[in-house]
């Protein structure tokens, strides 16, 4: 029997959530292992953190840690499964560490898909549901579904929607949020078809005239791509650097390297200059990006030259010899020397209302991209709308049952505050200060609220919630 030094994923989760990159790496390794098993007609049926060993004897995709899938005791060959027995009427409380229930139900409740709980046939998509639950737990430190008893837990799995990962971890990339949501879909047909689809997304091309899409390479979620004159496509992988792949398809190779000394966390929105020897891109230096002060970088494809040429996002080169980029929902132009890679003139705002993926309530869905396209003939098409408006919020008194007592308006800029002191009576002045969370989980309240302080008698607490506002006006495309 092989000796695997290290710890189980369940033991690691006792310390809290995993870093995003490590969680995704482990999830991809799990998906790879499932893909291999599923291709041989084997469905595991009992995936849980305790069945994965995080070893120090090998390296995973990120070169940090390797995950080994263990315990195929409940595995079955596809098409030869037995019907799990129903849970008995006598229900025991949920264990602190979930244990495979022997003699009552085949699997571990927290990680069992709805079809397993109903006694229906398990297939590969059943394992993908469990993978989604494990990924959610790795990212948030909390299980996707909880319950005070087996009955309530089963009821939540069958009827409740899990909270989006981004509500607990705001920097979660939107692609990861969507993946967890798809894996945890109640109906198997709404989940990814195979574990390969989970482990690897793909970059595809399709003819303008229509027809089937052609897969070019496997990849993580993409934040921008540029097709060069040399038939090379440069694209940005989520939370990573730029990669390149032949337009005919093949293996993607790294084109840029994140500068860790500068705090770079991703390179996005590439644009190849004429000749395909230089690429423009946006360098992001924080998981909560300040797009107006992000660096627009020009780098030679051979990596010998790299220059920061402006501040903003989503730059592209125009045949008129200008650089065009977005800043605060405005399109800005400046003269640009494509040989020396230098801005040659002052900046001029050319469009005042360009929709930009910036300043959204959930920064994880942001790419910084301007909804703007230009042609070699000098025509531009863009969507109006600017950036997402600051969300106004209100301070709310809430009692222990979650009932709101009263609220008062505050400036949107105070939405990341806590209460330094709380008045004993409504109507008194409030003092606000730096972020802090008190008594998290003690009071029941609506989703997306946070407790900031309590009254001296402990009967009410103060929180901040979004202020209702009218729907935003519809967006439109303009030509100029």
Layout of secondary structure:
Elements: E1 6-8, H1 9-13, H2 20-39, E2 42-43, E3 52-55, E4 66-69, E5 76-77, H3 114-117, H4 124-140, H5 150-159, H6 165-168, H7 174-183, H8 195-199, E6 201-205, E7 214-219, E8 222-227, E9 232-237, E10 242-246, E11 253-254, E12 266-272, E13 278-284, E14 295-300, E15 306-311, E16 313-318, E17 322-327, E18 330-337, E19 342-343, E20 348-351, E21 372-374, E22 380-383, E23 393-399, E24 404-410, E25 418-421, E26 431-433, E27 450-454, E28 460-466, E29 477-479
Helix pairs in contact: 2-4, 4-7
The helix tally amounts to 8
Q: Given the helix and strand composition, which structural class is it?
A: alpha+beta
Please provide the count of β strands.
29
Average pLDDT, all residues:
76
Per CATH, the class of the largest domain reads: Mainly Alpha
Give the radius of gyration. Answer: 26 Å
Q: Helix amount, in percent?
A: 10-25%
The fourth-level CATH homologous superfamily of the largest domain is Transferase(Phosphotransferase) domain 1
Low-confidence stretches: 59-64, 79-97, 99-106, 408-453, 469-474
Report on the structure:
The protein has helices at residues 9-13, 20-39, 114-117, 124-140, 150-159, 165-168, 174-183, 195-199, and strands at 6-8, 42-43, 52-55, 66-69, 76-77, 201-205, 214-219, 222-227, 232-237, 242-246, 253-254, 266-272, 278-284, 295-300, 306-311, 313-318, 322-327, 330-337, 342-343, 348-351, 372-374, 380-383, 393-399, 404-410, 418-421, 431-433, 450-454, 460-466, 477-479. The chain has 480 residues and is of the alpha+beta class. It has three domains: 6-198, Transferase(Phosphotransferase) domain 1 (Transferase(Phosphotransferase), domain 1); 201-206 and 213-352, 6 Propeller (Neuraminidase); 393-466, no CATH class. The strands form nine sheets. Strands 16, 17, 18, 19 and 20 form a five-stranded antiparallel beta sheet that branches. Strands 8-9-10-11 form a four-stranded antiparallel beta sheet, with no helix packed on it. A four-stranded antiparallel beta sheet has the order 12-13-14-15, with no helix packed on it. Strand 21 (372-374) and strand 22 (380-383) form a beta hairpin. Helix 2 runs antiparallel to helix 4 (124-140) and helix 4 (124-140) packs across helix 7. The radius of gyration is 26 Å and the shape is globular. The model is unreliable at 59-64, 79-97, 99-106, 408-453 and 469-474 (pLDDT under 50).
């Amino acid at each position: 029997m092989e000796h695997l030094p290290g710890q189980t994923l369940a033991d690691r989760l006792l310390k809290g959530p995993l870093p995003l990159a490590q969680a995704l790496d482990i999830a991809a390794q799990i998906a790879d292992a499932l893909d291999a098993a599923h291709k041989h007609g084997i469905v595991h049926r009992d995936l849980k953190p305790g069945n994965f060993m995080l070893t120090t004897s090998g390296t995973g995709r990120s070169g940090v840690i390797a995950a080994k899938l263990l315990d195929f005791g409940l595995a079955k060959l596809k098409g030869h499964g037995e019907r799990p027995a129903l849970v008995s009427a006598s229900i025991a409380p949920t264990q602190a560490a979930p244990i495979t229930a022997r003699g009552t139900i085949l699997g571990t409740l927290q990680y069992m898909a709805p079809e397993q709980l109903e006694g229906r046939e398990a297939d590969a998509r059943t394992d993908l549901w469990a993978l989604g639950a494990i990924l959610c737990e790795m990212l948030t430190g909390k299980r996707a579904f909880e319950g005070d008893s087996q009955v309530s837990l089963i009821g939540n799995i069958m009827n409740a929607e899990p909270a989006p990962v981004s509500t607990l971890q705001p920097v979660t990339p939107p692609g990861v949020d969507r993946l967890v949501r798809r894996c945890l879909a109640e109906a198997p047909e709404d989940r990814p078809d195979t574990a390969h689809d989970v482990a690897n997304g793909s970059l595809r091309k399709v003819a303008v005239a229509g027809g089937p899409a052609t897969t070019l390479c496997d990849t993580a979620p993409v934040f921008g791509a540029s097709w060069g004159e040399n038939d090379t496509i440069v694209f940005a992988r989520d939370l990573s650097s730029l990669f390149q792949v032949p337009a005919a398809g093949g293996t993607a190779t790294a084109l840029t390297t994140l500068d860790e000394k500068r705090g770079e966390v991703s390179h996005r929105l590439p644009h190849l200059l004429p000749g395909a020897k230089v690429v423009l891109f946006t360098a992001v230096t924080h998981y909560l990006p300040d797009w107006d002060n992000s660096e627009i970088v020009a780098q030679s494809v051979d990596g010998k030259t790299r220059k920061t040429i402006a501040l903003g996002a989503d730059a592209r080169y125009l045949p008129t010899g200008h650089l065009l980029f977005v800043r605060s929902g405005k399109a800005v132009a400046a003269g640009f020397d494509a040989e020396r890679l230098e801005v040659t003139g002052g900046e001029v705002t050319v469009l005042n209302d360009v929709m930009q993926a910036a300043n959204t309530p959930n920064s994880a869905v942001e790419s910084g991209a301007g909804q703007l396209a230009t042609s070699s003939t000098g025509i531009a098409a863009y969507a109006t709308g600017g950036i997402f408006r600051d969300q106004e919020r209100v301070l709310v008194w809430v009692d222990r049952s979650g009932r709101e007592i009263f609220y008062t308006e505050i400036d949107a800029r105070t939405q990341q505050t806590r209460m330094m002191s709380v008045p004993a009576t409504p109507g008194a002045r409030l003092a606000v200060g730096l972020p802090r969370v008190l008594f998290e989980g003690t009071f029941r309240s609506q989703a997306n609220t946070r407790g900031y302080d309590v009254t001296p008698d402990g009967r009410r607490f103060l929180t901040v919630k979004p202020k209702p506002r009218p729907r935003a006006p519809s967006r439109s495309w303009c030509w100029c």
